[in-house]
Amino acid sequence: MSKHQFTDIRVPIEPGNPSIQRHEEKCIKCGQCKQVCTNDIAVAGTYDLRKTGDIPICIHCGQCANVCPVESITEVYEYDQVREAVKAEEKIVIFSTSPSVRAALGEEFGLEEGSFVQDQMVALIRRLGADYVLDTNFAADLTIMEEASELVERVTKANKPLPQFTSCCPAWVKFVETYYPDMREHISTAKSPIGMQGPTIKTYFAKKMGIDPEKIVNVAVTPCTAKKFEIRREEMNAASKYLGIEGMRDMDYVITTRELAKWAREEEIDFVSLEGSYYDDFMGEASGAGVIFGNTGGVMEAAVRTAYHFITKEEAPEELYDLQPVRGLQGIKEASVRIGDLDVKVAVVYGTANAKKLMEKIKTGEADYHFVEVMTCPGGCIGGGGQPKDTKWLGDTLREKRIKSLYDRDKSMELRLSHRNEEIVKLYEDFYGEPLSKLAEEMLHTGYFDRSGDLDAGSGEGMKGSVKSMSKFKCSICGYIYDEEKEGALFTELKECPICKNPINVFEKLGAQNSDVVISESSMTEEAVRAQDVESEEENENPLAYPKEYVRKDSNNRFMSEIHQMAMTGETIIEAMGTRMPMPNWDDILILGAQLNPPPLDEHAPVDITTVIGKHAKKPMVLEGPVYISHMSFGALSKEVKEALAKGSAMAKTAMCSGEGGILPEERDAAYKYIFEYVPNHYSVTPENLKNADAIEIKIGQGTKPGMGGHLPGGKVTPEIAKIRNKPIGQDVISPSKFEDINTKEDLRDIVDQLRFASEGRPIGIKIAAGRIEKDLEFCVFAKPDFITIDGRGGATGASPKIVRDATSVPTIYALYRARKYLDEAGADIDLVITGGLRISSDFAKAIAMGADAVAVASAGLIAAACQQYRICGSGNCPVGVATQDPELRKRLKVDSSAKRVANFLNCSFKDLKTFARITGHENLHDMNVSDLCTIDREISEFTNIPHA
């Protein structure tokens, strides 16, 4: 059986992988690692673990780590070893920094994307204890000298096959070695800049500086995880051979941009306030051509500038300093460059999935080039697997900013040609002789291996036998599909469903008839049989025990899998978010634009969307617009997202609600208007808090779990939350389902009056779930609150019994109609707030037209802030720092950026609401009414007062 688990969902990672590692306890099985490895890198899904000896194919690019939302996959950390080397007095620690690091490092410390922080970076490395700090761009110039010389020879002498592929990207090199070994000769033999920097430091630099090379510890700071693999290639020991010192590596350690930042934070260094420093003089000068190595197309552009000089003996024309056809973020770019009498055809590619397409065209003769640059990572090294993560989901925008940073640096430099670098010229004069010399070949060039055998390395331990016919099996509980072909292992070697953890006897074979045997003991591994034996001992305790071979799933019975799960576990199914059951849809209600009778307003006509909550209160709450952030507790949500929601709603001049977990001071202080939720546990109920709130809402019920109290797992009860709730740290917190002192409508009225008095006239509201709407509203109206909130079916929650969530509460659309009708007929001038499944501005406009005075949103606000709808809120493992108290996960959520997103969403919604008012002919949004609506759903028309279209 394979030692790798869940390979249908995620990439397998071999223990001992030099570049990446998995922290198993953090994995949430989201599948993003496998998606990027399949779609962009073209490695996942191309091999069979049974044939590889159970060793995954990996080209070490680290893109899986880059997209992992929970730090389950990270680079293999080496900075601790470097830290120890720095402490060792006898060691001389020399750092060399790659170009892309300086265009991204600042992001780790809150600076704008693409900030060029070269001087601060050097200062940081010196603070960490470096003896020397050198620029790998120097070696990039050296690489260009060798690579361009090789290209010229290939083109003019035809001594090697064309096209020539670049060799700077070790992940790309290994990709060719594994999948296209017959095309290895196309790869330039020139080592990467780091591959050249290492031996040059331990020979030339050491001699010039009078340093014992055995004392040197070479450290490369790179954007790249694959460099950790590259420096460990057996041929990367040129200095060892030259000096006759056994066991010496050219480059000793590689640390990524993220590692450098992590180390700095551990040392509590304030990066932003560092005074800039400079590279050491010797081997410190670099050209702009070296700088742009970090960008897709940069190596190509730099090489062409120098190749032009080598062929024509003239300097490159101006257009080669801004070679637009090879710039940009297209996956495959092509250009033709006139060099003397030659038209040199070039291509630039990033992403090995794109490279694979190009390779196939080259093999078949469809594509014909002289020179091809390939980088594995998106946008080139600036998008490397060790770069700061794209926590704002900017995508190409982020990469464009980093690329611009390096191109701007190149443009600002006087020296923009590698062959004009005086230090490079001196290096050749004093040491290497000339490009492609015998010593240069020995020190600066390399060869490549045929690794295609890794794809068929034979059966390894636990991978015995073969599968004649690949099959798929589906878990009847959760729907997970086990694909033998993708997994590279027989289904019978599976112990349990990787998703719902139920035993394998709940699977059914896809394509089989209902009576087919899914799994029999004769087909199981010994381990699986033993597991079944253990189950059989417990069989008498299982009230639903039956022969396992009859397990099946009936797709026509949607409750069957739920019943099986409850029967096996004895536990209620808990889920996050809102119900997925069908219900009336806001999209089936349409807004009728005015034309002649009545006419619309001018498109720039002013529209009043001001919203007053508690218009008859002594101190009404006035909002810029009718949409505000609903109640979500600190505990269920992180402190960071609560602050972000408060700040964002304040930017939009609307309200923020506390949620049932009490008052988070930072949230209250940041809010423009603050609605305090009054709950049975009386969290944060003090005279001061009641007076400082802008409104108070009594929580009677919640749409997703009416009649139930809240439940905060002990794992989320941090010291700060425990203090606010006055509960023990780490213990579950259960909220009562009702107020003990509210049993009659008179009791409810007393509470309203008490809160109104204690708050000195703030608006008092009552929130109810959409259940027995008219009967509950009878109590509410009697109590004379200033506003009533109806929470309908369709809203979300951090965790709720699935069966309760799916089987209770009136749909929000019907609840709103019934509530408005009741209040109107009762003559109750009480503001009506609706919540529960409204997401976008058109939903809000329709709700206003149906009679709501305001709309409270929860999920929409969270999505605007950061939420990716993983539906794992109750687990505490939210990868974007929203529904978690894990300190490391919380760090991922940038409060100010998140707040800006929330503000943008709310302000955009307010603009849209003004547009809807204009097109329906209303100068005041609150004048919209059902005559502005129609529905295409006959049921909605029948059960509301909205006319059918």
Automatic annotation (TrEMBL):
Transmembrane segments: none annotated. Keywords: Amino-acid biosynthesis, Glutamate biosynthesis, Iron, Iron-sulfur, Metal-binding, Oxidoreductase. InterPro entries: 4Fe4S_Fe-S-bd, 4Fe4S_Fe_S_CS, Aldolase_TIM, Fe_hydrogenase, Fe_hydrogenase_lsu_C, Fe_hydrogenase_ssu, Fe_hydrogenase_ssu_sf, Fe_hydrogenase_subset. It is an enzyme of class 1 (oxidoreductase). It comes from the Bacteria. The keyword Oxidoreductase applies. The keyword Methyltransferase does not apply. Residues 470-510 form the Rubredoxin-like domain. Residues 18-47, 49-78 form the 4Fe-4S ferredoxin-type domain. GO terms for biological process: glutamate biosynthetic process. Pfam families: Fe_hyd_lg_C (PF02906), Fe_hyd_SSU (PF02256), Glu_synthase (PF01645). Its EC number is 1.4.1.13. It catalyses: 2 L-glutamate + NADP(+) = L-glutamine + 2-oxoglutarate + NADPH + H(+). GO terms for molecular function: ferredoxin hydrogenase activity; glutamate synthase (NADPH) activity; iron ion binding; iron-sulfur cluster binding. Belongs to the glutamate synthase family. This is glutamate synthase (NADPH). The lineage of its organism: Bacteria, Bacillati, Bacillota, Clostridia, Lachnospirales.
